[in-house]
Amino acid sequence: GVIMKKVLFFSLAIISFQGFSETAEDLVSKMWASFKDSDLEMFSETMSKTSTMVTFGTDASERWEGWDALKASVKIQFDAFDVQNINRSEKVINYNSNKDVAWFSEVVDWEVLTGGEKTLIEGIRFTGVMERINGEWLIVQFHSSVGVAGQVLEY
Questions:
Q1: I need a labelling partner for 131 at 20 to 30 A (CA). Which of 3, 51, 58, 92 fits?
Q2: Can you say whether the dihedral through the CA atoms of 14, 18, 21, 23 is positive or negative?
Q3: Are 72 and 53 in contact (CB under 8 A)?
Q4: Long-range contacts of range 99-102, CB-CB < 8 Å, 24 or more positions apart?
Q5: What is the mean pLDDT of residues 87-97?
Q6: Percent of the chain, pLDDT > 70?
Q7: C-beta atoms surrounding 74 within 10 Å
Q8: Closest listed residue to residue 137, CA positions, set 25, 40, 53
């Protein structure tokens, strides 16, 4: 009786937590799939689409405030090159104690086709924050960067 109820509760809690984890990972995977497929609609389904979003790309000029600015830039990127493959590594996802905010980081290698030339771009560092909004995970902030050789300021 009581022991069985505790075991059942514990089992459901584990299943629920595992599903929760996979849902956050699925959102990040879906975002990368949107780049591979050049699918702006799919990309938009992963973003919070608020005016308070702030996102950074790898170029010094790539800082977008709000969904509209980011969407316009991503459309230009989708039109400019064809992503052949995305390899993700060093993936980490963490959650706040309420399990309604998650932050993630990973290293991404891109294989792109642009102007008939295939290019491999390795070691893009990508971090982001997701929030559970109305029961759905959405990315509210992200930052991509390229590491420099050596330290910018030695210490």
A1: 58
A2: negative
A3: no
A4: 99/20, 99/132, 100/131, 100/132, 101/129, 101/130, 101/131, 101/132, 102/24, 102/129, 102/130, 102/131, 102/137
A5: 96
A6: 86
A7: 20
A8: 25
Q: Please report the pLDDT score of residue 143 as a whole number.
A: 97
Confidence of residue 150 (pLDDT cuts 50, 70, 90): confident
Q: Report how far residue 92's alpha carbon sits from residue 20's, in angstroms, rounded to the nearest whole number.
A: 15
Structure tokens at 56: 């950074």
**pLDDT tens across 44-86, in order?**
999 999 999 999 999 999 999 999 999 999 999 999 989 999 9
Alpha-carbon distance of 52 to 3, in angstroms, equals 48
Residue 54: partners with Cβ closer than 8 Å, 6 or more residues away: 63, 64, 65, 141
Torsion (CA) 10, 15, 18, 24 in degrees, nearest 10: -120
